[in-house]
Inverse folding.
Protein backbone atom coordinates (compact mmCIF):
# COMPACT_ATOMS: atom_id res chain seq x y z
CA UNK A 1 0.00 0.00 0.00
CA UNK A 2 1.34 3.45 -0.94
CA UNK A 3 0.93 6.14 1.61
CA UNK A 4 1.08 9.83 1.07
CA UNK A 5 4.15 10.96 3.00
CA UNK A 6 2.24 13.67 4.77
CA UNK A 7 -0.34 11.43 6.42
CA UNK A 8 0.00 11.25 10.17
CA UNK A 9 0.76 7.73 11.40
CA UNK A 10 0.50 6.66 15.03
CA UNK A 11 2.01 3.63 16.70
CA UNK A 12 0.03 2.46 19.71
CA UNK A 13 1.19 0.18 22.51
CA UNK A 14 -1.23 -1.89 24.57
CA UNK A 15 0.00 -3.70 27.68
CA UNK A 16 -2.69 -3.38 30.35
CA UNK A 17 -2.99 -7.12 31.07
CA UNK A 18 -1.86 -10.36 29.40
CA UNK A 19 -1.48 -9.01 25.86
CA UNK A 20 1.40 -6.96 24.55
CA UNK A 21 0.11 -5.36 21.36
CA UNK A 22 1.44 -2.90 18.83
CA UNK A 23 -0.86 -1.26 16.31
CA UNK A 24 -0.06 1.17 13.52
CA UNK A 25 -2.91 3.31 12.23
CA UNK A 26 -3.22 6.27 9.85
CA UNK A 27 -5.23 9.41 10.48
CA UNK A 28 -7.77 8.30 7.89
CA UNK A 29 -8.41 5.24 10.05
CA UNK A 30 -6.54 2.59 8.12
CA UNK A 31 -5.02 -0.11 10.33
CA UNK A 32 -1.61 -0.85 8.78
CA UNK A 33 -0.61 -3.36 11.42
CA UNK A 34 -2.04 -4.91 14.55
CA UNK A 35 0.34 -7.42 16.12
CA UNK A 36 0.21 -8.90 19.57
CA UNK A 37 1.69 -11.52 21.82
CA UNK A 38 -0.19 -13.08 24.72
CA UNK A 39 1.26 -14.24 28.00
CA UNK A 40 -0.04 -17.73 28.79
CA UNK A 41 0.19 -18.60 32.48
CA UNK A 42 1.05 -22.25 33.15
CA UNK A 43 -1.49 -22.34 35.96
CA UNK A 44 -3.94 -19.86 37.46
CA UNK A 45 -4.60 -16.34 36.26
CA UNK A 46 -2.28 -13.54 35.22
CA UNK A 47 0.58 -12.95 37.60
CA UNK A 48 1.29 -9.24 37.04
CA UNK A 49 5.06 -9.63 37.38
CA UNK A 50 5.18 -12.59 35.01
CA UNK A 51 2.97 -10.72 32.55
CA UNK A 52 5.34 -7.76 32.66
CA UNK A 53 8.31 -10.08 32.15
CA UNK A 54 6.62 -11.57 29.08
CA UNK A 55 5.92 -8.09 27.67
CA UNK A 56 9.54 -7.02 28.17
CA UNK A 57 10.77 -10.19 26.45
CA UNK A 58 8.58 -9.86 23.36
CA UNK A 59 8.40 -6.07 23.00
CA UNK A 60 11.19 -5.75 20.41
CA UNK A 61 9.89 -8.61 18.24
CA UNK A 62 6.30 -7.38 18.31
CA UNK A 63 7.45 -3.84 17.44
CA UNK A 64 9.62 -5.11 14.57
CA UNK A 65 6.80 -7.30 13.23
CA UNK A 66 4.33 -4.41 13.32
CA UNK A 67 6.69 -2.07 11.46
CA UNK A 68 7.43 -4.75 8.91
CA UNK A 69 3.75 -5.55 8.41
CA UNK A 70 2.91 -1.85 8.00
CA UNK A 71 5.84 -1.56 5.64
CA UNK A 72 7.11 1.63 7.21
CA UNK A 73 10.27 2.84 8.93
CA UNK A 74 10.28 4.23 12.47
CA UNK A 75 10.94 7.71 11.05
CA UNK A 76 7.58 7.56 9.21
CA UNK A 77 5.81 7.64 12.56
CA UNK A 78 4.50 10.95 13.83
CA UNK A 79 2.93 10.01 17.16
CA UNK A 80 3.39 7.33 19.83
CA UNK A 81 0.37 6.35 21.92
CA UNK A 82 0.28 3.97 24.85
CA UNK A 83 -2.34 2.56 27.21
CA UNK A 84 -1.72 4.56 30.39
CA UNK A 85 -4.40 2.73 32.39
CA UNK A 86 -6.42 1.15 33.85
CA UNK A 87 -4.77 -2.22 34.25
CA UNK A 88 -2.07 -4.18 36.03
CA UNK A 89 0.71 -1.87 37.21
CA UNK A 90 3.79 -3.91 36.20
CA UNK A 91 2.33 -4.70 32.76
CA UNK A 92 1.34 -1.08 32.16
CA UNK A 93 4.79 0.14 33.17
CA UNK A 94 6.51 -2.12 30.65
CA UNK A 95 4.42 -0.72 27.79
CA UNK A 96 4.88 2.83 29.04
CA UNK A 97 8.66 2.39 29.16
CA UNK A 98 8.74 1.19 25.54
CA UNK A 99 6.50 4.09 24.49
CA UNK A 100 8.61 6.73 26.27
CA UNK A 101 11.79 5.33 24.77
CA UNK A 102 10.35 5.40 21.24
CA UNK A 103 8.91 8.89 21.54
CA UNK A 104 12.15 10.28 23.00
CA UNK A 105 14.36 8.58 20.44
CA UNK A 106 12.21 9.60 17.46
CA UNK A 107 11.51 13.02 19.02
CA UNK A 108 7.79 12.78 18.35
CA UNK A 109 4.83 13.43 20.66
CA UNK A 110 3.67 10.88 23.23
CA UNK A 111 -0.03 10.42 24.08
CA UNK A 112 -1.32 8.43 27.07
CA UNK A 113 -4.64 6.75 26.33
CA UNK A 114 -7.34 5.32 28.57
CA UNK A 115 -7.68 1.64 27.65
CA UNK A 116 -11.50 1.62 27.97
CA UNK A 117 -11.82 4.67 25.71
CA UNK A 118 -9.63 2.75 23.23
CA UNK A 119 -12.10 -0.16 23.16
CA UNK A 120 -15.01 2.21 22.50
CA UNK A 121 -13.19 4.18 19.77
CA UNK A 122 -11.95 1.13 17.85
CA UNK A 123 -15.50 -0.22 18.02
CA UNK A 124 -16.82 3.00 16.51
CA UNK A 125 -14.13 3.03 13.82
CA UNK A 126 -14.59 -0.57 12.73
CA UNK A 127 -18.41 -0.65 12.82
CA UNK A 128 -19.23 2.89 11.75
CA UNK A 129 -21.28 3.55 14.89
CA UNK A 130 -21.27 7.26 15.77
CA UNK A 131 -23.05 7.68 19.10
CA UNK A 132 -23.63 4.22 20.55
CA UNK A 133 -24.61 2.89 23.91
CA UNK A 134 -21.58 0.67 24.50
CA UNK A 135 -21.47 -2.60 26.41
CA UNK A 136 -17.80 -3.19 27.14
CA UNK A 137 -17.18 -6.67 28.53
CA UNK A 138 -13.73 -8.15 29.07
CA UNK A 139 -11.57 -9.86 31.65
CA UNK A 140 -11.14 -6.64 33.58
CA UNK A 141 -14.19 -4.57 32.70
CA UNK A 142 -17.96 -4.82 32.56
CA UNK A 143 -19.70 -1.54 31.92
CA UNK A 144 -22.43 0.20 29.98
CA UNK A 145 -21.32 3.62 28.78
CA UNK A 146 -22.57 6.35 26.51
CA UNK A 147 -21.31 9.77 25.55
CA UNK A 148 -22.76 12.85 27.20
CA UNK A 149 -21.23 16.31 27.56
CA UNK A 150 -17.56 15.69 26.87
CA UNK A 151 -17.10 12.26 28.44
CA UNK A 152 -18.15 8.64 28.23
CA UNK A 153 -20.50 8.34 31.21
CA UNK A 154 -20.88 5.05 33.03
CA UNK A 155 -24.57 4.11 33.28
CA UNK A 156 -24.08 0.63 34.61
CA UNK A 157 -21.19 -1.52 35.72
CA UNK A 158 -20.30 -4.55 37.76
CA UNK A 159 -20.24 -4.04 41.50
CA UNK A 160 -17.52 -6.69 41.85
CA UNK A 161 -15.84 -8.91 39.24
CA UNK A 162 -15.84 -8.52 35.46
CA UNK A 163 -17.79 -10.82 33.13
CA UNK A 164 -14.66 -12.21 31.43
CA UNK A 165 -13.09 -12.80 34.82
CA UNK A 166 -16.20 -14.69 35.97
CA UNK A 167 -16.06 -16.99 32.91
CA UNK A 168 -12.27 -17.45 33.12
CA UNK A 169 -12.21 -18.39 36.79
CA UNK A 170 -15.06 -20.84 36.25
CA UNK A 171 -13.22 -22.34 33.26
CA UNK A 172 -10.07 -22.87 35.32
CA UNK A 173 -12.12 -24.44 38.12
CA UNK A 174 -13.63 -26.78 35.52
CA UNK A 175 -10.14 -27.79 34.48
CA UNK A 176 -10.00 -26.03 31.10
CA UNK A 177 -6.46 -25.20 30.06
CA UNK A 178 -5.68 -21.98 28.22
CA UNK A 179 -4.38 -22.54 24.70
CA UNK A 180 -2.82 -20.18 22.25
CA UNK A 181 -5.53 -18.36 20.32
CA UNK A 182 -8.39 -19.98 22.27
CA UNK A 183 -9.44 -17.91 25.27
CA UNK A 184 -10.88 -19.78 28.25
CA UNK A 185 -14.22 -18.07 27.63
CA UNK A 186 -14.39 -19.69 24.20
CA UNK A 187 -14.08 -23.13 25.83
CA UNK A 188 -17.01 -22.28 28.13
CA UNK A 189 -18.98 -21.14 25.07
CA UNK A 190 -18.37 -24.47 23.30
CA UNK A 191 -19.57 -26.50 26.29
CA UNK A 192 -22.51 -24.13 26.87
CA UNK A 193 -23.71 -24.75 23.32
CA UNK A 194 -24.25 -28.42 24.28
CA UNK A 195 -26.08 -27.64 27.53
CA UNK A 196 -29.85 -27.99 27.78
CA UNK A 197 -31.09 -27.89 31.36
CA UNK A 198 -31.09 -24.67 33.34
CA UNK A 199 -29.36 -25.07 36.70
CA UNK A 200 -30.77 -22.59 39.27
CA UNK A 201 -28.16 -19.86 39.77
CA UNK A 202 -28.36 -16.33 41.19
CA UNK A 203 -29.51 -13.47 38.96
CA UNK A 204 -28.38 -10.20 40.51
CA UNK A 205 -29.29 -6.92 38.88
CA UNK A 206 -29.19 -3.76 40.97
CA UNK A 207 -30.59 -0.89 38.97
CA UNK A 208 -28.25 -0.60 36.02
CA UNK A 209 -25.45 -2.28 37.97
CA UNK A 210 -24.97 -6.00 38.45
CA UNK A 211 -23.04 -8.41 40.63
CA UNK A 212 -21.30 -11.51 39.28
CA UNK A 213 -19.26 -12.83 42.20
CA UNK A 214 -22.19 -14.71 43.77
CA UNK A 215 -23.04 -16.28 40.42
CA UNK A 216 -19.46 -17.48 40.01
CA UNK A 217 -19.40 -18.99 43.51
CA UNK A 218 -22.71 -20.77 42.92
CA UNK A 219 -21.60 -22.12 39.54
CA UNK A 220 -18.36 -23.46 41.04
CA UNK A 221 -20.31 -25.00 43.93
CA UNK A 222 -22.69 -26.70 41.47
CA UNK A 223 -19.68 -28.02 39.58
CA UNK A 224 -18.11 -29.49 42.74
CA UNK A 225 -21.38 -31.14 43.82
CA UNK A 226 -21.33 -33.18 40.63
CA UNK A 227 -25.12 -33.26 40.34
CA UNK A 228 -25.19 -31.45 37.01
CA UNK A 229 -23.27 -31.96 33.79
CA UNK A 230 -20.48 -29.52 32.94
CA UNK A 231 -22.36 -28.63 29.74
CA UNK A 232 -25.49 -27.68 31.70
CA UNK A 233 -23.53 -25.58 34.19
CA UNK A 234 -21.65 -23.75 31.41
CA UNK A 235 -24.98 -23.16 29.67
CA UNK A 236 -26.67 -21.88 32.84
CA UNK A 237 -23.71 -19.70 33.82
CA UNK A 238 -23.70 -18.05 30.39
CA UNK A 239 -27.48 -17.66 30.25
CA UNK A 240 -27.64 -16.03 33.69
CA UNK A 241 -24.60 -13.80 33.26
CA UNK A 242 -25.47 -12.70 29.73
CA UNK A 243 -29.14 -12.13 30.61
CA UNK A 244 -27.97 -9.87 33.44
CA UNK A 245 -25.67 -7.76 31.24
CA UNK A 246 -28.33 -7.67 28.52
CA UNK A 247 -30.96 -6.52 31.01
CA UNK A 248 -28.79 -3.64 32.27
CA UNK A 249 -27.92 -2.73 28.68
CA UNK A 250 -31.61 -2.60 27.87
CA UNK A 251 -32.26 -0.45 30.94
CA UNK A 252 -29.54 1.98 29.86
CA UNK A 253 -30.89 1.94 26.31
CA UNK A 254 -34.39 2.83 27.49
CA UNK A 255 -32.90 5.51 29.75
CA UNK A 256 -30.52 7.16 27.24
CA UNK A 257 -32.64 6.50 24.13
CA UNK A 258 -29.51 6.02 22.01
CA UNK A 259 -30.08 4.68 18.49
CA UNK A 260 -27.04 2.39 18.33
CA UNK A 261 -25.69 -0.39 20.51
CA UNK A 262 -22.01 -1.34 20.41
CA UNK A 263 -20.62 -4.54 21.87
CA UNK A 264 -16.88 -4.42 22.51
CA UNK A 265 -14.15 -6.05 24.63
CA UNK A 266 -12.92 -9.65 24.71
CA UNK A 267 -16.29 -11.23 25.59
CA UNK A 268 -17.83 -9.52 22.53
CA UNK A 269 -16.63 -12.52 20.51
CA UNK A 270 -19.24 -14.72 22.22
CA UNK A 271 -22.02 -15.58 19.76
CA UNK A 272 -24.69 -16.15 22.40
CA UNK A 273 -24.10 -12.71 23.90
CA UNK A 274 -24.23 -11.18 20.42
CA UNK A 275 -27.59 -12.88 19.80
CA UNK A 276 -29.08 -11.56 23.05
CA UNK A 277 -28.00 -8.00 22.34
CA UNK A 278 -29.22 -8.16 18.75
CA UNK A 279 -32.70 -8.99 20.11
CA UNK A 280 -32.65 -6.14 22.62
CA UNK A 281 -31.34 -3.56 20.13
CA UNK A 282 -34.04 -4.61 17.66
CA UNK A 283 -36.79 -4.17 20.24
CA UNK A 284 -35.69 -0.57 20.83
CA UNK A 285 -35.17 0.24 17.13
CA UNK A 286 -31.46 0.59 17.70
CA UNK A 287 -28.78 -0.68 15.34
CA UNK A 288 -26.64 -3.45 16.80
CA UNK A 289 -22.89 -3.31 16.16
CA UNK A 290 -20.22 -5.71 17.27
CA UNK A 291 -16.52 -5.07 17.02
CA UNK A 292 -14.67 -7.56 14.74
CA UNK A 293 -12.91 -10.32 16.64
CA UNK A 294 -9.39 -9.00 15.91
CA UNK A 295 -10.27 -5.73 17.64
CA UNK A 296 -12.44 -7.23 20.40
CA UNK A 297 -9.59 -8.42 22.60
CA UNK A 298 -6.91 -6.02 23.80
CA UNK A 299 -4.96 -4.68 20.84
CA UNK A 300 -2.49 -1.98 19.87
CA UNK A 301 -4.58 -0.62 16.99
CA UNK A 302 -7.24 0.72 19.36
CA UNK A 303 -4.58 2.64 21.28
CA UNK A 304 -2.99 3.98 18.08
CA UNK A 305 -6.37 5.11 16.68
CA UNK A 306 -7.44 6.77 19.94
CA UNK A 307 -3.96 8.33 20.11
CA UNK A 308 -4.61 10.02 16.77
CA UNK A 309 -8.02 11.26 17.90
CA UNK A 310 -6.48 12.67 21.07
CA UNK A 311 -3.43 14.16 19.37
CA UNK A 312 -5.45 15.92 16.69
CA UNK A 313 -7.58 17.42 19.49
CA UNK A 314 -4.42 18.94 20.95
CA UNK A 315 -3.76 16.36 23.66
CA UNK A 316 -0.18 15.23 24.36
CA UNK A 317 1.36 13.61 27.42
CA UNK A 318 4.74 15.07 28.44
CA UNK A 319 7.19 12.35 29.56
CA UNK A 320 7.15 13.65 33.14
CA UNK A 321 3.37 13.15 33.26
CA UNK A 322 3.40 9.75 31.58
CA UNK A 323 3.22 7.69 34.79
CA UNK A 324 0.70 4.86 34.58
CA UNK A 325 -2.76 5.16 36.12
CA UNK A 326 -3.75 1.74 37.44
CA UNK A 327 -7.31 2.75 38.41
CA UNK A 328 -8.18 5.30 35.75
CA UNK A 329 -11.95 5.32 35.33
CA UNK A 330 -13.36 5.95 31.87
CA UNK A 331 -15.68 8.69 33.15
CA UNK A 332 -12.70 10.74 34.36
CA UNK A 333 -11.37 11.19 30.82
CA UNK A 334 -12.26 14.12 28.56
CA UNK A 335 -12.88 13.08 24.97
CA UNK A 336 -12.87 16.41 23.10
CA UNK A 337 -12.77 14.70 19.69
CA UNK A 338 -16.30 13.36 20.06
CA UNK A 339 -18.54 15.86 18.35
CA UNK A 340 -22.15 14.95 17.85
CA UNK A 341 -24.20 16.69 15.25
CA UNK B 1 -58.16 2.96 24.40
CA UNK B 2 -54.75 2.20 25.82
CA UNK B 3 -52.03 4.70 25.07
CA UNK B 4 -48.43 3.57 25.45
CA UNK B 5 -46.70 5.81 28.01
CA UNK B 6 -43.30 4.23 27.97
CA UNK B 7 -41.69 1.18 26.54
CA UNK B 8 -39.28 0.64 29.38
CA UNK B 9 -36.52 -1.89 29.64
CA UNK B 10 -38.51 -4.57 31.40
CA UNK B 11 -42.07 -3.42 31.20
CA UNK B 12 -44.39 -1.49 28.95
CA UNK B 13 -46.53 1.17 30.58
CA UNK B 14 -49.95 2.00 29.15
CA UNK B 15 -52.30 4.78 30.12
CA UNK B 16 -55.83 3.43 30.24
CA UNK B 17 -59.30 4.04 31.51
CA UNK B 18 -60.37 1.42 34.01
CA UNK B 19 -63.73 1.69 35.80
CA UNK B 20 -63.72 5.45 35.17
CA UNK B 21 -60.28 5.82 36.62
CA UNK B 22 -57.16 6.93 34.83
CA UNK B 23 -54.76 4.07 35.40
CA UNK B 24 -51.37 2.82 34.40
CA UNK B 25 -51.15 -0.75 33.18
CA UNK B 26 -47.70 -2.09 33.74
CA UNK B 27 -47.00 -5.24 31.80
CA UNK B 28 -43.77 -7.19 32.01
CA UNK B 29 -43.51 -8.68 28.56
CA UNK B 30 -41.55 -11.86 27.90
CA UNK B 31 -37.92 -11.17 27.08
CA UNK B 32 -36.94 -13.12 24.00
CA UNK B 33 -33.22 -12.91 24.86
CA UNK B 34 -33.62 -14.94 28.07
CA UNK B 35 -34.42 -18.65 28.28
CA UNK B 36 -38.22 -18.91 28.84
CA UNK B 37 -37.82 -20.68 32.17
CA UNK B 38 -35.52 -18.00 33.60
CA UNK B 39 -37.63 -15.24 32.06
CA UNK B 40 -40.85 -16.50 33.61
CA UNK B 41 -39.30 -16.87 37.05
CA UNK B 42 -37.97 -13.30 36.97
CA UNK B 43 -41.20 -11.74 35.68
CA UNK B 44 -43.42 -13.60 38.15
CA UNK B 45 -41.17 -12.70 41.08
CA UNK B 46 -41.08 -9.03 40.21
CA UNK B 47 -44.84 -8.82 39.50
CA UNK B 48 -45.61 -10.25 42.93
CA UNK B 49 -42.99 -8.30 44.86
CA UNK B 50 -43.42 -4.87 43.34
CA UNK B 51 -46.99 -4.25 44.61
CA UNK B 52 -46.10 -5.68 48.02
CA UNK B 53 -43.22 -3.24 48.36
CA UNK B 54 -45.30 -0.33 47.08
CA UNK B 55 -47.90 -1.12 49.70
CA UNK B 56 -45.28 -1.26 52.44
CA UNK B 57 -43.76 2.00 51.22
CA UNK B 58 -47.09 3.69 51.91
CA UNK B 59 -47.01 2.30 55.44
CA UNK B 60 -43.58 3.87 55.78
CA UNK B 61 -45.11 7.19 54.75
CA UNK B 62 -43.64 7.30 51.26
CA UNK B 63 -46.15 8.10 48.49
CA UNK B 64 -46.51 5.42 45.79
CA UNK B 65 -49.32 4.88 43.27
CA UNK B 66 -52.33 2.94 44.58
CA UNK B 67 -52.48 -0.65 43.35
CA UNK B 68 -55.80 -1.69 41.82
CA UNK B 69 -55.15 -5.13 40.40
CA UNK B 70 -52.46 -7.74 39.92
CA UNK B 71 -52.51 -10.44 37.27
CA UNK B 72 -49.59 -12.73 37.96
CA UNK B 73 -50.20 -15.02 34.99
CA UNK B 74 -49.85 -12.11 32.58
CA UNK B 75 -47.24 -10.28 34.69
CA UNK B 76 -49.52 -7.25 34.78
CA UNK B 77 -50.14 -4.63 37.47
CA UNK B 78 -52.87 -2.00 37.26
CA UNK B 79 -52.14 1.06 39.35
CA UNK B 80 -53.10 4.69 39.85
CA UNK B 81 -51.87 7.20 37.28
CA UNK B 82 -49.95 10.00 38.98
CA UNK B 83 -50.28 13.31 37.12
CA UNK B 84 -46.91 15.01 37.20
CA UNK B 85 -43.41 15.01 35.86
CA UNK B 86 -40.54 12.58 36.08
CA UNK B 87 -37.87 14.04 38.32
CA UNK B 88 -35.34 13.40 35.56
CA UNK B 89 -36.95 16.19 33.54
CA UNK B 90 -37.27 18.57 36.49
CA UNK B 91 -33.96 18.39 38.34
CA UNK B 92 -31.73 20.29 35.89
CA UNK B 93 -34.29 22.97 35.08
CA UNK B 94 -34.87 24.46 38.55
CA UNK B 95 -32.67 26.81 40.58
CA UNK B 96 -30.00 25.58 42.98
CA UNK B 97 -32.05 26.26 46.09
CA UNK B 98 -35.10 24.34 44.87
CA UNK B 99 -32.86 21.55 43.65
CA UNK B 100 -31.23 21.21 47.05
CA UNK B 101 -34.65 21.20 48.71
CA UNK B 102 -35.93 18.52 46.36
CA UNK B 103 -32.85 16.35 46.80
CA UNK B 104 -33.12 16.67 50.56
CA UNK B 105 -36.70 15.47 50.21
CA UNK B 106 -35.50 12.47 48.16
CA UNK B 107 -33.01 11.65 50.90
CA UNK B 108 -35.59 11.75 53.67
CA UNK B 109 -38.04 9.61 51.67
CA UNK B 110 -35.36 7.01 50.95
CA UNK B 111 -34.48 7.04 54.64
CA UNK B 112 -38.13 6.35 55.54
CA UNK B 113 -38.08 3.34 53.21
CA UNK B 114 -34.87 2.06 54.74
CA UNK B 115 -36.09 2.55 58.31
CA UNK B 116 -39.13 0.48 57.36
CA UNK B 117 -36.98 -2.30 55.96
CA UNK B 118 -37.42 -1.58 52.25
CA UNK B 119 -34.71 -0.99 49.70
CA UNK B 120 -35.94 0.36 46.38
CA UNK B 121 -33.31 -1.33 44.21
CA UNK B 122 -33.39 1.13 41.31
CA UNK B 123 -33.23 4.66 42.65
CA UNK B 124 -32.97 6.87 39.59
CA UNK B 125 -34.64 10.19 38.82
CA UNK B 126 -36.70 8.34 36.20
CA UNK B 127 -38.36 6.43 39.01
CA UNK B 128 -39.55 9.46 40.96
CA UNK B 129 -42.57 11.53 39.96
CA UNK B 130 -43.30 15.01 41.23
CA UNK B 131 -47.05 15.55 41.08
CA UNK B 132 -48.85 18.82 40.53
CA UNK B 133 -49.16 19.42 44.28
CA UNK B 134 -45.41 18.99 44.75
CA UNK B 135 -45.71 15.52 46.30
CA UNK B 136 -42.87 13.17 45.43
CA UNK B 137 -43.98 9.68 44.37
CA UNK B 138 -41.67 6.68 44.11
CA UNK B 139 -42.38 4.12 41.41
CA UNK B 140 -40.81 1.00 39.92
CA UNK B 141 -40.07 -1.20 42.93
CA UNK B 142 -39.46 -4.22 40.68
CA UNK B 143 -35.87 -4.65 41.83
CA UNK B 144 -36.67 -3.85 45.47
CA UNK B 145 -36.14 -6.00 48.50
CA UNK B 146 -37.43 -6.37 52.05
CA UNK B 147 -34.30 -6.04 54.11
CA UNK B 148 -32.77 -3.95 56.89
CA UNK B 149 -29.20 -4.86 56.00
CA UNK B 150 -26.77 -1.96 55.89
CA UNK B 151 -25.18 -3.50 52.78
CA UNK B 152 -28.43 -3.32 50.79
CA UNK B 153 -29.12 0.22 52.00
CA UNK B 154 -25.61 1.26 51.00
CA UNK B 155 -26.02 -0.21 47.50
CA UNK B 156 -29.39 1.58 47.20
CA UNK B 157 -27.79 4.97 47.90
CA UNK B 158 -24.72 4.14 45.80
CA UNK B 159 -27.01 3.49 42.82
CA UNK B 160 -28.71 6.84 43.35
CA UNK B 161 -25.32 8.57 43.48
CA UNK B 162 -24.29 6.83 40.25
CA UNK B 163 -27.58 7.78 38.57
CA UNK B 164 -26.98 11.42 39.51
CA UNK B 165 -23.42 11.24 38.17
CA UNK B 166 -24.41 9.78 34.81
CA UNK B 167 -27.59 11.73 34.17
CA UNK B 168 -27.29 14.97 36.16
CA UNK B 169 -23.51 15.27 36.01
CA UNK B 170 -23.38 19.07 36.33
CA UNK B 171 -25.10 19.02 39.72
CA UNK B 172 -24.33 15.50 40.92
CA UNK B 173 -22.14 16.41 43.90
CA UNK B 174 -24.44 19.06 45.38
CA UNK B 175 -27.48 16.85 44.74
CA UNK B 176 -26.04 13.83 46.50
CA UNK B 177 -24.82 15.95 49.42
CA UNK B 178 -28.40 17.22 49.81
CA UNK B 179 -29.76 13.67 49.58
CA UNK B 180 -27.52 12.61 52.45
CA UNK B 181 -28.60 15.63 54.49
CA UNK B 182 -32.24 14.62 54.03
CA UNK B 183 -31.33 11.02 54.87
CA UNK B 184 -29.66 12.16 58.10
CA UNK B 185 -32.75 14.24 59.00
CA UNK B 186 -34.69 10.98 59.32
CA UNK B 187 -32.23 8.34 60.48
CA UNK B 188 -29.96 10.57 62.57
CA UNK B 189 -26.32 11.53 62.08
CA UNK B 190 -24.86 8.28 63.41
CA UNK B 191 -26.82 5.98 61.11
CA UNK B 192 -26.15 8.31 58.19
CA UNK B 193 -22.42 8.14 58.92
CA UNK B 194 -22.61 4.34 59.03
CA UNK B 195 -24.35 4.11 55.67
CA UNK B 196 -21.86 6.60 54.16
CA UNK B 197 -19.02 4.42 55.34
CA UNK B 198 -20.75 1.45 53.73
CA UNK B 199 -21.11 3.33 50.42
CA UNK B 200 -17.35 3.97 50.38
CA UNK B 201 -16.71 0.28 51.11
CA UNK B 202 -19.04 -0.76 48.24
CA UNK B 203 -17.37 1.67 45.85
CA UNK B 204 -13.94 0.33 46.75
CA UNK B 205 -15.08 -3.16 45.76
CA UNK B 206 -15.73 -1.94 42.22
CA UNK B 207 -13.38 -1.91 39.29
CA UNK B 208 -10.91 0.91 38.83
CA UNK B 209 -11.79 3.07 41.78
CA UNK B 210 -9.06 5.59 42.58
CA UNK B 211 -9.76 5.39 46.31
CA UNK B 212 -9.23 1.64 46.42
CA UNK B 213 -6.16 0.49 48.29
CA UNK B 214 -3.53 -0.84 45.95
CA UNK B 215 -2.32 -4.15 47.26
CA UNK B 216 0.26 -4.83 44.55
Amino acid sequence: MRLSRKERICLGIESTADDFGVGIVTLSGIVLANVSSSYLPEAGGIHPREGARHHAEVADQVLAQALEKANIKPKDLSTIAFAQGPGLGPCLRTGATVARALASYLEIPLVGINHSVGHIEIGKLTTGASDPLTLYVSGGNTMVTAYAAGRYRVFGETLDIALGNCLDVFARQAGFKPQKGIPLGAAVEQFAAKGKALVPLPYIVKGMDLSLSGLLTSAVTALKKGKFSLEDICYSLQENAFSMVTEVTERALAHTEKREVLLTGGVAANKRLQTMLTIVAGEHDAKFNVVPREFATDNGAMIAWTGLLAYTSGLVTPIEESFVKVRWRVDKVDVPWVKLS
Amino acid sequence: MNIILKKGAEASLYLANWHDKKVVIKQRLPKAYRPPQLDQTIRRYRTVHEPQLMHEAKQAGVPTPAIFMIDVENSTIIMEYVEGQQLKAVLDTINAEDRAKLCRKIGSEVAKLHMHGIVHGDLTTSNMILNDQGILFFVDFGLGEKTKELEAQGVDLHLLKRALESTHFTHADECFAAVLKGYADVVGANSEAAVCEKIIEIEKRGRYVAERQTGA
